[in-house]
Amino acid sequence: MSLKETLLRKIEEHRPRTTRLLKEYGSTKVQETTIEQVIGGARGIRSLVTDISYLDPFEGIRFRGKTIPETFECLPKVPGCDYPYVEGFFWFLMTGDVPTLEETLEVVEEFKKRRALPQYVVDILRAMPTDTHPMTMFSAGILAMQRESLFVKRYNEGMKKTEYWEPMLEDVLNLLPKLPTLAAYIYRMKYKADIHIPADPNLDFGGNFAHQMGFAKPYDDVARMYFILHSDHESGNVSAHTTHLVASALSDAYYSLSAGMNGLAGPLHGLANQEVLSWMMKFQEKLGGQEPTQELVKQALWDTLNAGQVIPGYGHAVLRKTDPRYMAQREFCLNNLPDYPLFKVINMVFEVAPGVLTEHGKTKNPWPNVDAQSGVIQWYYGLTEWDFYTVLFGIGRAIGVLSNITWDRALAYPIERPKSLTTAMLEEVAGIKS
Ligand code: NMX
Ligand code: MLT
User: Fold this and answer.
1) Does residue 434 carry a pLDDT above 80?
2) Model confidence over 42-92: pLDDT tens digits?
């Protein structure tokens, strides 16, 4: 069965569950909300549905019910490599089924046919000022391709609501394979003397990305690991929520993903991976050749906090323990670059920062998140231009959010529209007399 046929079967099985919940249990209470939640960024308000991943505050992420090690273990691997095909992972996120090698290779071939970047996107990128941030270029490149949306074409022809997911899937299948090509083009144009490497028809999503970036093995496995780890973090994070929100207006995959990427580009979200490297480099500069010690790291962390800034890569809105994505990357570092000096400093921060943040007393979670550990791996393999790191996050995140918006259409989730209150109304709820 093809991906589309499998997905159709899954959608048809799933639809009655959503319909039943709505029809028979629509008025059942999920929770009560507090003033703190209303003012405080909707933290903890349960108002989104996704079956693609779930984030437990203490365990961390599960993709379709599987932990990170289970996910890596169960999926078909690229021959001679340690990490699975991204294409097989995409099948898994979309359908909830672990694909066979044959099914995985079907997606590999489909993606190869669709990965070339249109010339007009190249022209747009080249017209942008050279100091434009790579995330701006990435988002603009995605948005520029919106003219290709099949969803828009079919919508304008008057398709039925139950069919919405089909052109959404086609848009997703057209857009996702172009993202590594787009990213590699931006990278080589900005940082590698504008010399570009043509795609290799024999390579998969991760392998061809490494090739077009110009990085030798095992960077292909680094890319596969990175994209899978960053793919999805349930639906409330800024990039996933934005993508879902924009898609809820029946905006197509191009509009929705571009918007999500703009959210990912914020320093409290995906840009934190570049902030971590920037913090590390400033710290090393300050050291001026001195050996880093726990005392010096501690002082630098306090300097950052006392300057009113956040420690990038630490804290989380949901997690209350070390992010398992941090641990997966740490394990990679322990296996591949255990003695690398930058990794040693990162470990020192890992030993010291939770204590400093606890003493500081503000953050609810003093433990590292995914971004604290990702840059060092890129740096080690030669990708030292840290303002590109969030683009890597963006390619990974697209796998999750594009799967989610396909399901949004399949389950006919409505336009998102929470209700606002005024401050005076909240004061009235609180019983405050003016
Ligand atoms: N360094 C210093 N202060 C922090 C940190 C940190 N790493 N994390 C949280 N705080 C502060 C936070 O600014 C807030 O201060 P105030 O009361 O003055 O507004 C207070 O602690 C309470 O915040 P929390 O409720 O613990 O965290 P919240 O859910 O609001 O924010 C983050 C979550 C992730 C935005 C926050 O922890 C942070 O800014 N971390 C650093 C940036 C970062 O690593 N972001 C990447 C997150 C993962 N990702 O890829 O998206
Ligand atoms: C993410 O991967 O989106 C981040 O960890 C942020 C979040 O989940 O809120």
Assistant:
1) no
2) 999 999 999 999 999 999 999 999 999 999 999 999 999 999 999 999 999
Nearest CA to ligand 2 atom 6: 237
* Segment 118-163, tens digit of pLDDT: 999 999 999 999 999 999 999 999 999 999 999 999 999 999 999 9
Q: Is 211 a catalytic residue?
A: no
- Among the listed residues 211, 269, 323, 408, the single catalytic one is 269
Task: Quickly count: other Cβ atoms within 10 Å of residue 26's Cβ.
Answer: 8
Average pLDDT, the chain: 97
Look at residue 233 in the predicted model and tell me its pLDDT: 98
Ligand 1 mean position, distance from CA 310 (Å): 7
Task: Quote the CA–CA distance of 95 and 290 in Å, as a whole number.
Answer: 52
Residue 67 Cα, ligand 1 centroid: separation in angstroms? 25
What backbone phi and psi angles, to 5 degrees, belong to 56? -90, 135
Give me the residue label for tokens 């799967």.
Answer: 403
The predicted pLDDT at position 433 comes to 82
Catalytic site residue 14?
no
Which one of 43, 233, 321, 364 would you pick to mutate in the ligand 2 pocket, going by the greatest count of ligand atoms within 8 A of its CB?
Answer: 233
The pLDDT, as a whole number, for residue 288 is: 87
Place of tokens 């929470």: 418
